[in-house]
Amino acid sequence: MEFACPLFYDLTKNEIDEILSRSVNEVVTFEKGQHVVRQGDIIHSLYILVEGLVRTEMVTKDGNVVEIEFIEPVRPLAPAFLVATENRYPVDVISMQKSEFYIIPKTLWLKEMMNNEQLLTNFMELNSNMTVFLSKKVQMMSIKSLKGKLSLYILENTTPQNNTFILRRTQSQLAEYFGVQRPSLARTLGDMIREELISIYKREVKVLDRGKLESMI
């Protein structure tokens, strides 16, 4: 299971097992609906999700809740903030189903990275990729129309070579992700289907006109 974690890319199973045996000092389980961490909590340890599903959301100064992403195993929580000067969680993390975490104290994780160049490289690459993800999130929030936001979301989850993807979110969760009411989302998706921009069968979304979707961003 740990091989799927981007922190451990290009490490052997023995290397991973040794790192985990030295550094993991606790395994914690959270039930559905429980907060794993709260926005503003100080980060003392690296949390690695190994089973389950969690969502992250941010409360703005105006009191609005903005969903950031769903996190599936095997992924760490906010790894860049572990070593930040302002080392506090930027989001609430809520368990969407029974979820299990490996907890590694910050000092032990830093020691492991100092002794393993590949582990350090993976950590830096993961944090760089998260910066790219957040910049795309900001781009989406700057788009005014819901159709434009949906177009960007669909394009980011597909490629010209693979023009379908499975929606992991329900319509209610997707509406919350975009900060709109569910009827508005359903109406806009219906418009996009009628305009033959996309098709939806059960949870599978298929891009029919990539060029028009790109023109809406």
Automatic annotation (TrEMBL):
Pfam families: cNMP_binding (PF00027), HTH_Crp_2 (PF13545)
Keywords assigned by UniProt, alphabetized: DNA-binding, Transcription, Transcription regulation
Coiled coil spans: none
GO cellular component, one term: cytosol
Domain HTH crp-type: 144-211
InterPro entries xrefs: cNMP-bd_dom (IPR000595), cNMP-bd_dom_sf (IPR018490), Env_Response_Regulators (IPR050397), HTH_CRP (IPR012318), RmlC-like_jellyroll (IPR014710), WH_DNA-bd_sf (IPR036390)
Residue ranges of every copy of the Cyclic nucleotide-binding domain listed in the record: 7-55
GO molecular-function terms, A-Z: DNA binding; DNA-binding transcription factor activity
Protein name listed in UniProt: cAMP-binding domain transcriptional regulator
Species whose genome carries this gene: Fermentimonas caenicola
